[in-house]
Amino acid sequence: MNRDALSSRRSAATVSPPRDTVARRGSVYLSRHPRLRLTVMLSAPLTWLVLVYIVALVLLLVTAFWSVDSFTGEITQSWTFDNIVKVVTGSLYQNVTLRTIGVALAVTAIDISLALPIAFFMAKVASPRVQRMLVIAVLMPLWASYLVKVYAWRSVLSGEGVLQWFLNPFGIEGPGYGLTAVIMTLSYLWLPYVILPIYAGLERVPDSLLEASSDLGAKPWGSIRNVILPLIWPAIIAGSIFSFSLSLGDYITVNIVGGANQMLGNLVFANVGAANNLPLASAIALIPIVIIFGYLALVRRTGALNNL
Amino acid sequence: MKLSTFSRGTLGTITGIILAVIYLPLLVVLVNSFSTSQSLTWPPPGFTFEWWIRAFQNQGAVDAVFTSVQIAFISTGIALVLGTLISLALQRFEFFGRDAISLLIILPIALPGIITGIALNNFFRTIMGVPLSIWTIVIAHATFCIVTVFNNVIARLRRMGTNLEDASADLGAGLWTTFRLVTFPQLRSALFAGGLLAFALSFDEIIVTTFTAGSGITTLPIFILENMFRPNQAPIVAVIAVVLVVVSILPIYVAERVAGGDKSDRR
Amino acid sequence: MMTRKTAGKSIGLSLLAMATVAVLAACGTASSGGGGTAALTELGENEGQVNILAWPGYVEDGTNFPEYDWVTPFEEATGCMVNAKTYGTSDEAVTLMKTGDYDVVAASGDATLRLIAAGDVAPVNTELIPNYANIYDFLKMKAWNSVDGVSYGVPHGYGANLLMYNTEVFPEAPTSWDVVFDASSPYKGKVTAYDSPIYIADAAVYLMAHSPELGIENPYALDETQLAAAVELLKTQRVNVGEYWSDYLKAISSIETGDTVVGTTWQVIMNYLAEGTTAAAVLPEEGATGWSDTWMVASAAKNVNCAYAWLDWIASPEANGAATEFFGEAPSNPGACDFRADCDAFNAGDTEFAGKLWYWTTPIAECVDGRTDVTCTDYSQWTQAWTEIKG
Fold it and tell me: Which residues of C touch B94 (CB under 8 A)?
């Protein structure tokens, strides 16, 4: 075969050179300037987030330092620490804060302990077909409206509800409406959000690691404790962020199944509505913001933020 | 790790029990949708199809579903674009402030909804002087949906690596062509999964929505909230919930198949 | 690779931008409300639409129940298309009115004075509303719907906050609010009360009868001492309360299941209870608080002629009858009784019944009972007190 035939065959097989359009030149320029590329990519989402969210948040928190004219309900922009002081020192706010944190921690603990076995089963034990079905089964309840689920729980927990009917033969009194009911309902509501990251985390643990561990003589429980848990710890924390923060600010569930109780969300809501006292509401809102920031700062080190 | 049959059995049973508990309230809702009681009392006094018939004829409910679907679609779309951009930026580049940005992305969903709600309400109405409308809802929803897309896409990007993209560039493809023909197909399932979760989040969101919805905009959660006050309407709400759950099986199944297709090998 | 310096610069720039915006905003937060505060002098052309804010059930257009529709006939008669938004609590209504998006609002007495004070509603020229003349006199020009002889709206109807009791737990009807305020109540965990700061007035009504030494003349005009006494009473009650209610679905379900056996209720709740529910309602001897909602016109109303058309329509016998029957309250127009069969059940026109009621009025610093030697506590203080009572 002579050279010409070879080269012509080769040229027939190659792609034609790209046309020199503006887009092409732009693409070439960007390829050579990674910083610019980064800026271009970041500009839209960052502007959005900063403008829409951060600015809004900052402006809200600024109002915590203002006060409201009680007669007309207009915000007067006189700087004062009154609201912050009231919120930090008032016994009402301290009690409600402790109560809310307690509920959020209980919900998180319950959800994690429920999520671990089910996620483990889904990720490591179930066959692929069952696994798929389980994922669908876990995700489906997310589509039933939050409000409907809470009202269903109200019906379940009532004095004549399903739970009481179940407990009657044992002679036990159900919890009725109150903080226990709130914890149960919130645990129920956020469970899928906790299962998903843990499941994803468990999926990423290669079976070979576990096999190696048992080859080295570890019993199953030992493998779990020393191999799996450290690996999925960030995923667990990620799940906990959801359940903790969602519980911290919830007010609708408390309203519906919490009896006469209040949590931080109710206080904020009451003050946004009542006399339009946005400054006090913002001051109260500072409490969960500080708590969440603290929690996020704590967990940043565990790398959980990459696992959400 | 070999688990004994006993352990597997126990785990399976626990899973079964937990699933049963997860579905029990939904069953209560299902039964309530056929109950003659107008205020969702238990045990149901009687059986009726009336609410099902009423629900499908209820113009308010149908409109609310459409509004919610519209908002969810647009918010998800925006979240997909922004989420992908920011995942690419964060995963492919090293720069100062990277941690701060990932914190920023999570904030809208980490901070309680009521705070996001009143912050945005204050921002739109008082500061910007913009009247609340369907677009303020979309903006609010897109903001907290970014994180679900971000999580899925960045996880996928980490697994993907840049080899294929480098090869594509070596072969002479421009940035957009590489993205279109190489990166995007690999991201597709992650985008779908993230988008589906974002859609679900937006569809069912009530707290932020009440604060950012213009007058006259009724999303499905707002419709449900308003009608839970009305004894004659409450069972219709139960019907809507059942329909939503049943209808959701399809997209979730599809998402699972698509995402499951390129799940990382268990090995 | 982005260097630390350039990255640091861009972060710094964005922070600066944020700070600038914050400062600018701090200087000029837009104020809400305002607009004209003079009543309309004469009617003009109907604008073609009207935006109404009301309790759920006040503006029915047949989408919820085909047989309940007093909106479509209005739209056909006047050409004003109705856009209705509902609210869940009076506080929500006050906040929503500040947006300036609404032309008409149906406000309860615990909201009206706040709306008037904030300038969000304008006086109503009742001469432009023919049906106003027929409304019961005992509802017109009251403390909650008028200021200094100027009317701010059209009364819609009225209802009382009655005492509900479970007939199995109380074989004989209770005659006093004792049963809910009793400290050592045998019904602990099963008492209910209305979840709003305005409920403090109910405690005040009780104190008016049982602690006359406090000198309460009007349950909405409480000075600091009187408010403190009411708060004490409510904190004692709190121990026995199972849940507070603000949406009546919640109240209905807990009465039907027996989770609640005694407490404040509305007639509409009693009407909706399922057959066979062993509960009844009564007006105790101390009297009770009540509410009479007022249709008001927004000061920033864009469709003010349609707004007046609506006010006239809803005060007309047929519409008033349909609307108040649907919600479960007494009508404000006597002619409405021709269009509904249950006027008696609601004590329509019964001035004696109506006289025992202390209608919801927004507490303000200027005592509504006329006292000038003390400052009364206002609604924001009641709100603070209420959150403390609930703990």
Answer: 1-2
What pLDDT score was predicted for residue B146? 92
Give chain A's length.
308
- 3-class DSSP string for A105-133: HHHHHHHHHHHHHHHHHHHHHCCHHHHHH
Residues 6+ apart with CB under 8 A from C263: C163, C164, C180, C191, C192, C193, C241
CB C192 within 8 A of CB C162: no
**What is the distance between the alpha carbons of residues B49 and B34, in angstroms, rounded to a whole number?**
6
Taking CA–CA distances from A191, the nearest residue in chain B reads B22
Cross-chain CB nearest to C98 (options A160, A177, A276) = A276
Q: What is the DSSP letter of C231?
A: H
Q: Say if CB A272 and CB A281 are below 8 A apart.
A: yes
Question: What is the C-alpha to C-alpha distance for residues C271 and C292, in angstroms, rounded to an integer?
Answer: 19
**Alpha-carbon gap, residue C359 to C366, rounded angstroms:** 18
Q: Is the predicted pLDDT of residue A109 greater than 90, yes or no? A: yes
Largest Cα–Cα distance in chain B?
A: 72
Q: How far apart are CA B82 and CA A46, in angstroms?
A: 9
What Cα–Cα distance (Å) separates residue A245 from each residue in A182, A241, B130, B237? 15, 6, 29, 27
CB within 8 Å: B37 and C63: no
Tell me which residue has tokens 């610093």.
C365
Q: Say yes or no: ipTM exceeds 0.90.
A: no
Contact A211, B80 (CB under 8 A): no
- H-run or E-run covering C283: none
- What is the C-alpha separation between C333 and C316, in angstroms, rounded? 7
First to last CA, chain C: 55
What is the nearest CA distance from C127 to chain A, expressed in angstroms? Answer: 28
Under 8 Å CB pairs connecting chains A and C tally to 121
Taking the CA atoms of B157, B159, B164 and B170 in sequence, report the sign of the dihedral they define.
positive
The full length of chain B comes to 267
Amino acid at site C219: P
Are C390 and A154 within 8 A, CB to CB?
A: no
Q: pLDDT category, B261, cuts 50, 70, 90?
A: low
Identify the helix (H) or strand (E) that includes residue A141: none
C-alpha A34/C-alpha B222 separation (Å) is 46
Interface of A with C in 111-150 (CB under 8 A): none
Q: How confident is the model at residue B2 (pLDDT cuts 50, 70, 90)?
A: low
Give chain C's length.
391
Contacts 24+ apart (CB under 8 A), C201-205: C201/C289, C201/C358, C201/C360, C201/C363, C202/C161, C202/C177, C202/C264, C202/C288, C202/C289, C203/C230, C203/C231, C203/C233, C203/C234, C203/C237, C204/C230, C205/C177, C205/C286, C205/C287, C205/C288, C205/C289, C205/C358
**CA torsion through residues C206, C209, C215, C219, sign:** positive
Crossing angle of helices A146-157 and B234-261, in 10° steps, is 120
Q: How far is B126 from chain C (nearest CA, A)?
A: 5
Three-state secondary structure call for residue A308: coil
Q: In chain B, which residues have their Cβ closer than 8 Å to the Cβ of A49?
A: 104-105, 108, 143, 146
Is the dihedral angle over the CA atoms A86, A87, A89, A93 positive or is it negative? positive
CA distances from B209 to A58, B118, C65 (A): 20, 10, 26
Average pLDDT over residues B225-234: 70
- Average the pLDDT over A191-212 and give the result: 86
pLDDT tens for residues C166-180?
A: 999 999 999 999 999
Nearest Cα residue in chain A from C387: A267
